[in-house]
Amino acid sequence: MNSLVASKWKLAVRVIPFVIVILAVKFVLHRFNLEFLGLSPLFTAIISANIFLIGFLISGVLADYKEAEKIPGELACCLETMSDEGLFIHQTKKDPAAKAFLKHLENLTRSLDDWFHKKLKTNGMMGQIRELNAYFPALEPLTQANFIARLKQEQNNLRKLVTRIHTIRETDFNEAGYAIAEIITLLLIAGMIFIKIDPFYQSMFFVGFVSFILIYMVILIKDLDNPFGYYDNSLSQDISLKPLSDFRRRIEEINREPEEEINN
Question: Is there a domain that residue 151 lies in?
Fold first, then answer.
């Protein structure tokens, strides 16, 4: 629970130092009477336009984020299905090839965790998926041909999901959109710093509040754009890998069991 609460407020805590600096600059400018801009309806219109742009960007990244939420579960289901086939062959035929296949699935799950945290490159991950081919000839005489075809299909699904994850985390949703949103946000904050609003405490409140919202939303959008950023400790809105960690625990338990218990 504490980790969930910390994750919930991590982004807000990250934004607060920026707001403090902005308010400090605002205070200094007010102290030396350097606020030379007046509040104009055009300025509020620009704020509204920027919020509209941010809304457009967040609606786009949320669509990819919702799709990405399903991927760890789909990966776990592929691995679970393959482990079921391997366990069935091991229980019925008592062949060491099936046990070796199950051990490779365990190692493959560990490699996926390393790959998610960028400790393993995508080419290396694809190579480990390809290494499943070495086990199929040994398993083919032990089971029906359609079971081997099913294993090959799940192997293909693993490749598709790994490729999809690689594309999502290496490609920005709309770089030009991010650029204009960041530029407008920067100019708006600079403008608010130099705008004279009386009384001064209202000026500080609105500058701090609007700055917080704009900076928070820009960082949030960039965070949501890469839901697989486990290797970046500064980000917080990452997809849960619990389905994969649960499967890893199950396959490790299977491989730790003595031969007699597995066969029974």
Answer: yes
Residue 162's identity, in one-letter code, is: V
Run of H or E residues at 60:
helix 41-93
In a domain, 213, yes or no: no
What is the tally of structural domains in the chain? 1
Peptide bond into 72 cis (omega under 30): no
* 193 in a structural domain: no
Tens-of-pLDDT digits for all 264 residues of the chain?
A: 445 445 678 888 889 999 999 999 999 998 888 888 887 888 888 888 888 888 888 888 888 888 899 999 999 999 999 999 999 988 888 889 999 999 999 999 999 999 999 999 999 999 999 999 999 999 988 888 888 899 999 999 999 999 999 998 888 767 777 888 889 899 999 988 998 888 888 889 999 999 999 999 988 888 888 888 888 765 567 888 999 999 999 999 999 876 544 444
Domain that holds residue 140: 69-173+231-264
Task: Using alpha carbons, select from 3, 14, 10, 9 the residue that is nearest to residue 215.
Answer: 14
Q: What is the pTM of this model?
A: 0.80
What distance in Å separates the CA atoms of residue 242 and residue 32, rounded to the nearest whole number?
A: 55
Does a structural domain hold residue 259? yes
Q: Are 191 and 43 in contact (CB under 8 A)?
A: yes
**Which of the 8 DSSP states describes residue 154?**
H
CB of 228 within 8 A of CB of 184?
no
Task: Give the span between the Cα atoms of 69 and 72, in whole angstroms.
Answer: 7
Q: What is the helix (H) or strand (E) element at residue 33, kind and residue range?
A: none
φ/ψ (deg, to 5) at 111: -65, -35
